[in-house]
Specification:
The protein is of the alpha/beta class. The chain has two domains: 1-43, no CATH class; 50-250, no CATH class. The chain is 16% helix and 32% strand. It contains six helices and 16 strands. The strands form five sheets. Strands 1, 6, 9, 10, 13 and 14 form a six-stranded parallel β-sheet that branches. A three-stranded parallel β-sheet has the order 2-7-11, with no helix packed on it. The protein has a three-stranded parallel β-sheet with strand order 3-8-12, with no helix packed on it. Strand 4 and strand 5 (103-105) form a beta hairpin.
Length: 251
């Protein structure tokens, strides 16, 4: 496993944390912040300008996209303006090469699952708190959300609210309808959610084989979902996550 920021192998400490998180284990914040990779990432941050504009960021131009991940058992409090199971705010962002004109990228979220998410942030969404794009809209595709408890000003099964600019395109997703949240919260909708957005009962609708036909649909852009009654509580998971190896290592 290679750290795309530095090109060096990911440390054993980071790999250990990732495995524990994938297994739904709690990891202290102090331990995460002490990781070599987190310190390196924080060293790129500047309050004077967006980090994507800083020098030597060209090598990680896809950092705004998230693909093939799970997020389970997350809590966000009201001190946060935007909170989602995958991202707080999903921007359409500018990407820079040194000395060249900026280009735009939507920053897609594809093939991600969120299970048990509680939030009191102003904009609370199962996948993203706020969806907005300066120029190019992003896709939120082939994602599912289950067991969410949202108590913000704006709440949505996928997105808590849209920002003031362009919206995103939400397709081929599954959302539990236990608490009757709209797919996109807020009053000024700019995102679209028109293709295969299915609301299902949380405990029964997302733990059956039929969900794979939606998540793995050809047009979803992601076909790596699997499901087993004995893995991930019966909920779908990206097959690139090796749960059996993780379980064996913990033993």
């Amino acid at each position: 496993m290679i750290n795309k920021l530095t090109g060096e192998p990911v440390s054993e400490e980071m790999q250990s944390v990732l495995k524990r998180l994938a297994a739904n284990e709690s990891v202290p914040e102090a331990e995460i912040m002490a990781l070599k990779e987190i310190k390196e990432a924080n060293s790129c941050i500047s309050s004077s300008k967006p980090t994507i504009e800083l020098k030597n960021r060209a090598g990680i131009q896809n950092a705004c996209s998230v693909t093939g991940c799970l997020a389970n058992n997350i809590t966000a409090n009201g001190y946060v303006k935007s909170a989602g199971g995958i991202a707080g705010t999903a921007y359409g962002v500018k990407l820079y090469n040194d000395g060249e004109k900026a280009r735009y990228s939507g920053g897609n979220i594809i093939g991600c699952g969120v299970r048990t998410f509680t939030s009191t942030a102003d904009n609370s969404g199962g996948i993203v708190g706020t969806a907005t794009a300066d120029n190019s809209s992003a896709y939120i595709k082939s994602c599912y959300v289950a067991n969410i408890y949202l108590n913000g000003k704006n709440n949505g099964g996928i997105a808590g609210a849209d920002g003031n600019k362009k919206g995103h395109k939400i397709t081929y997703c599954l959302v539990d309808n236990s608490n009757k949240y709209p797919v996109i919260g807020g009053s000024k909708l700019r995102s679209t959610a028109k293709v295969m957005i299915l609301s299902v009962p949380a405990d029964t609708g997302l733990t059956v084989e039929g969900v794979l036909s939606v998540l793995n649909a050809n047009a979803s852009g992601y076909s790596y979902w699997e499901r087993s009654d004995s893995i991930n509580g019966g909920y779908p998971y990206p097959k690139k996550i090796d749960f059996e190896s993780l379980t064996a290592e913990r033993k």
